[in-house]
Amino acid sequence: MSLQRVFGIALAAVMFLGVLGSAGVFLAFRLNGRSAGAVQASTAKSAQAPLDTPAESVPTSESAESLTAHVSETSPEHVHCPAVSLTSDATQQGVIPLHTGLTIVDAWHVPSGDFEMTERVKTTTADSVRLFLLGDVPAGMEPNAVYRTICREELQSSHLLYTGFRNGDPEMYPGTTLFSLSAAVFEDLKTKGRASLTYTQPDYGSAYEVEATASRRGVTHDRREWDEWSGEVARVEADDVQVPVIVNDRRVNVAAIHAKGTLGNEPMEFWVADDPLNPVMLRFAHPAHNFYIQVVKLSFPTDQSTRIEQSLKTEGSAEIHGINFDFASDQIRADSEPVLKEIADALKAHSEWTLRVEGHTDNIGADEFNLDLSKRRAEAVKQDLVTHYEISPSRLSTAGFGASRPKESNDTLEGRARNRRVELVRQ
Question: Which of 15, 168, 350, 403 could form a disulfide with 284 if both were Cys (CB 3.0 to 4.6 A apart)?
Answer without folding.
Answer: 15
